[in-house]
Specification:
Strand order of the largest sheet: 2-1-3-4
Order of helices and strands: EEHEEEEEEEEEEHH
Distance between the termini: 52 Å
Oligomer: single chain
Largest sheet: 4 strands, antiparallel
């Protein structure tokens, strides 16, 4: 029995409605296809233990195995590794790190570390823009974000590269 992929440990694969193929996760799908999987549209899966196809659920209807310790019905996310996963209804996606360590800022439209609750500078929908360095999406990125004093966001890895390049003096 397979236990998932390099991205997640789980006991099911998802049937991508866009191309009618099974993938262990949306990231595996996106790596192999020329389009992205909207995981909230997934309606069927296959148990990796008994090979039974079925509607999305937390447990296999045939053999009873739990597909993952964490299950989000909205995001169709299954994971057997404890990462402090939680679904943020404000963000519309699952986050990691423990719900007790974050708060959702409605103006910024994102989850921020609790230590920033009374001290961050709000920038309207700041997470809904692309990273100014790599131009990739920040909101759904698996790369942590850096929040500089101005309140705009960039990927932490992009910020590190910016510091290493010496160009940071021009921006701060």
């Amino acid at each position: 029995m397979s236990s998932g992929c390099v991205h997640y440990i789980r006991r099911c694969s998802l049937l991508a409605p866009c191309c009618k193929k099974y993938y262990n996760c949306r990231l595996c799908h996106n790596d192999k296809e020329d389009h992205e999987l909207d995981r909230s549209t997934v309606e069927a899966l296959k148990c990796l233990q008994c090979d039974s196809s079925q509607e999305v659920n937390s447990h296999c209807k045939n053999c009873g195995i739990k597909f993952g310790r964490y299950y989000c019905e909205i995001c169709r996310l299954f994971d057997d590794t404890e990462k402090g996963q939680f679904h943020c209804s404000g963000c519309g996606i699952c986050r990691v790190g423990g719900v007790e360590n974050f708060f959702h800022c409605d103006r910024c439209d994102m989850c921020l570390g609790i230590q920033l609750k009374d001290s961050h500078k709000c920038v309207e929908k700041s997470s809904r823009s692309d990273c100014p360095i790599c131009y990739e999406d920040i909101h759904t990125s698996r790369i942590p974000s850096h929040v500089p004093p101005c309140g705009h966001l960039l990927h932490s890895s992009c910020f590190t590269k910016l510091l290493e390049s010496g160009y940071v003096a021009f921006f701060f």
